[in-house]
Amino acid sequence: MEKYDAIIIGIGQAGNPLSATLAEKGWKIAVIEREHPGGSCINYGCTPTKTMVASAHVSHMVSTAEEVGIEADPPKTNFKKVIERRDGIVKEWREGIEKKMAETEDIDYFFGEASFVSNKQLQVKIKEENQSEFTLKEFSADKIFINVGTSPRVPEIEGLSDVNYLTAKSMMSLTELPEHLIILGGGYIGLEFGQMYRRLGSEVSIIQDETQLAPKEDEDVSEAIQEVLEEEGVAIYLSSQLDKVRKTASGISVSLKGDNIKELQGSHLLIAIGTDPNTETLNLEKTDVKLKKHGYIDVNKHLETNVNGVFALGDCKGGPEFTHISYDDFRIINDYLFGEKKRTINNRMVPYTMFTKPELGRIGLNEKLAKKENKRYKISQMPMSHAARAIEANRTRGLLKVLIDPDTKQFLGASCLADIGGELMSMIQIAMMGGLTYEDLRDGVLAHPTYAETLNNLFASVEDPEE
To answer: What pLDDT does 129 receive?
Structure first.
């Protein structure tokens, strides 16, 4: 039995900075990672997908160059180079984390899979480099931090187990551009992959079981997203369920049921309907740690479980599942252990961005949530086709929509579907953090011609919501 001050299971976007901080404090740390350091963000989420989004964006710019008076040959995707660039960046980030681990004196880094023996004791299957056999070791610590993340959820569909379907994770192993990519799921992951692969040259079909894409968004925002995708040639099937899947000589055939009863033929099928926590192999039944629905770990406002000294950080504790939230989880733990215990998960702002083009940046309430909470609000809204910089840049698709408290005139939330929607959303978030009113942004002197200047015009009119 090896005794440590702390054990960190999983070296994702919360576990990585936490390990460095604890080591700086002189704690003896064991870090256990069963696959790749960096979590989903670096390995199959943010980093690899956004490098591919960049390639797809350049392809789209070339294909639409004539709209701004530039004659260019039709773009041709060299998919091998696209994935080589992507994998090179991922490799650099992974190796950077591993190097840091190796160079930090008080960190023992193990490649293996951990499972609980009791509340504060772990058994770890450790696989040494270039060896096929596992070595079993047992560790214990007064503090244990679980940062195991999530994996793509796979539904039970007739015939699915008989075909080589893809998930957001296994998409990273593709070496050839799909001829026709069928995507099950019209949320953020499905929409980002859908537009990206369409721009790279694939035929794309998206199957969504609800009445709109991005179902948590307001209907007008969702409709604007759908219009953009359909203009680019993405086929969208709403109110449809994937009923059966079968393998064909040319790829995959899927049968739909719902408002659009149809059979689709494709080369690849991507399942993008959500995630499940990687808690199944932890043997938490050997502990007193309580779980929530679907196996997520129950925590308090400081991220501690019902077992004193056992914490859960990042996606495995349940949503919201974003890299920046995982990093903030680290800051909450850091403050709890070494600070004033003021930071908590309660009432923190949760910004998020869908990296389609145009981007969708969201913060706070939208109309759908405001109505659900019976919240009084006024609204400022304008299409990006009215924004000077968007017109000049030929980036007029999308809209800005901001909810305002009628009494305080402060911001309740924003939906920014624009070329740099995430950045515009962040401006509203900073205003919310500073307690600014819509009048402060309306009357501020913002540089012309910038996207930021759009806020002057956006807040020139504040209206009551439509009944």
So the answer is: 67
Which DSSP helix (H) or strand (E) runs through 336? helix 323-338
Pairing of strands 268-271, 263-266: unpaired
Rounded to 10 degrees, the C-alpha dihedral 86/355/34/105 comes to: 80
- Taking the CB of residue 267, how many other CB atoms lie within 10 A of it? 17
Type of residue at 143: K
Alpha helix stretches (DSSP H) within 201-319: 219-231
Three-state DSSP at 269 gives strand
What CA dihedral angle connects 363, 365, 369 and 371, to 10 degrees? -160
Question: Burial letters for 42-56: b for 16+ Cβ neighbours within 10 Å, e otherwise?
Answer: bbbbbbbbebbbebb
Q: What distance in Å separates the CA atoms of residue 82 and residue 64, rounded to the nearest whole number?
A: 20
CB neighbour list of residue 3: distance below 8 Å, 6 or more residues apart? 139, 140, 141
Q: Which of 36, 302, 386, 448 is catalytic?
A: 448
Q: How far is CA 340 from CA 32, 285, 303, 309, 348, in A?
A: 29, 33, 15, 17, 17
CB 4 within 8 A of CB 25: no
Convert the pLDDT of each residue in 44-101 to its tens digit.
999 999 999 999 999 999 999 999 999 988 899 999 999 999 999 999 999 999 999 9
Instruction: Give the per-residue pLDDT at 466.
Output: 83
N-terminal to C-terminal alpha carbon distance within the chain: 66
Backbone torsions φ then ψ of 234, nearest 5 degrees: -85, 130
Residues in a beta bridge with 7: 30, 144
Q: Beta-strand (E) ranges in 70-197?
A: 107-118, 121-127, 134-146, 150-152, 166-167, 180-184
Where are any strands of DSSP class E within 174-317? 180-184, 203-207, 235-237, 240-248, 251-258, 263-266, 268-271, 275-277, 310-312
302 is catalytic: no
Tokens, residue 440: 């402060």
Its pTM stands at 0.94
The C-alpha atoms of residue 459 and residue 381 are separated, in whole angstroms, by 8
Instruction: State the CB neighbour count (10 A cutoff) for residue 61.
Output: 17
Angstrom distance (rounded) from CA 298 to CA 319: 11
Helix (H) or strand (E) holding 267: none
d(CA 192, CA 53): 8
Distance CA 41, CA 57 (A): 20
Q: From its phi and psi, is residue 312 left (phi > 0), alpha (psi between -120 and 50) or beta?
A: beta
